[in-house]
Amino acid sequence: MATARDTGWVIVSDQHGQPYWERRIGDTLATVQRTQLNGVPAWHYYAGFDRWFVYGYKYTIRSAKVEATKALRWYALREADFKRVKAKLRLLWREQGIESVEPVLSKTWDERADQVPVNGILWRWDHELGMWMSGAWRLWYNRSTGWMFRYPDDHIQELHVDNRHDAMREASMWIGLALEE
After folding, report:
1. What are the pLDDT digits (tens) for 20-44?
2. Residue 113's domain spans which residues?
3. 169, 118: one domain
4. Cβ-count burial of 161 within 10 angstroms (0-12 exposed, 13-18 middle, 19+ buried)?
5. Number of domains in the chain
6. What is the pTM of this model?
7. Closest CA to 135 of 120, 151, 148
């Protein structure tokens, strides 16, 4: 798989001629710009892809660039996945006749050894298949590729996380984005 080119930090100007730092990986963007925060000089950072982003403030340019770079890499790693869910998948699936797309909803007291509620979604362990399931959604660990996530249309996505809880948290994010109308 080809990786998107990382531009490194470069100085550019906004429409008013004010300089700021910018860094890109593919279509993912990060910026760092000097600003005032409560009357004190600070650095505003932003990183994201399309309508998904994170921003914040730091008091040194170095710490702002570090935070922006971490977020930039997080979004860049998932850029293709964001492009996919941007397509309003629930509507597309409805047109394709895929009706059963809702995950199983949970309450916090639903936790047992074979079922785990995470972010309002109940994941149940299927012993025969060797994976976690919530409705038509599937989640499993593959030793060679890591955590894998299957959508109701059988699309398989790699989750870039290290443990089950983070995999379930990220899966719940993708479910929410895929089901937006």
Report:
1. 999 999 999 999 999 999 999 999 9
2. 82-179
3. yes
4. middle
5. 2
6. 0.86
7. 151
